[in-house]
Task: structure prediction
Amino acid sequence: MKLVKTFACAALIATFSAFAQTYPGKPVRIVIPYPPGGTTDIVARLAQNRLSALLGQPVVVDNQGGATGAIGAGFVARSAPDGHTIMYTPGTDMVLRPFIMKANPVDPIKDFTPIIATISSVDIIAATAASPINSAKELVEYAKRNPGKLTYSTPGVSSHFHLAGELLKIHGVDIVHVPFKGGGPAVAAAAAGQTSLSLGNLTTMHAVVRDRRLKVIALIDAKRNPNLPGVPAMNEILPGYEMPGSWFAFYGPARLPGAIVARLNGDITQAFKSLELRAKVEELNMTIITGKPEEVTAFMRKGIETYGKIVKAAGIRPE
Result:
């Protein structure tokens, strides 16, 4: 019996190896689990033509939005593990979904094969232009003197940025959450003075920061950003304040053969080395971080650990 199993495994490996040598044999579909127009969609389309040239097959971007990305993620998880259907998505959403959705259809670790992380965004806390708060230190001091008086907008309940606000509260900075349906509306509300602060990424806030309708007072990220040298990371003011960064990655279904993962990892790395793509990503105030699949897994496990602690401390329950 063991001998039969050994032969069967060897045959399967040989089949996958032969398949990988001829991969891709047809167009490659990149599923974006969100509607068109967002950061994820924009970056995927920037890489689309370059990746198509490298793979030697058409690359099609397929938007399958809904259920906080769960619909598109479920579709990819159920797809054949042959490299012709992959997904590009914020890694933070993959990690967060089990904590916020009772009916989450996928397991972020078991149901997917990490391929490569590509970019990270700059996560910030911004105050309204008219606010007397001009620094992270002033924010902490004011909020502790006036608990519950400041409000902050985010892209939604249980989003990465909502949890960033809850972590502030855990550290004694009591500010009130005002959720919106998406980053754009959240930023617009703060710029109009409807909330005291907005927590989001610099890509979404760039225009209103440039026009001085919002002012960046702190980074949610763990360390300072060279593009904002005068802005401190929040953990400099609140020791122990630690949020996972926002990053975006490609995934395939579980059991995607290693040879195909290696091919996709190499070609996606090359695509993101394109000077044109790099310039566009920098215009979006993001950073290219291409690396090995193992790094994606490490990002995810760290995120699961950190989000789990925040969700438990804040008493957030999946809906």
Remarks:
- The chain has twelve helices and eleven strands.
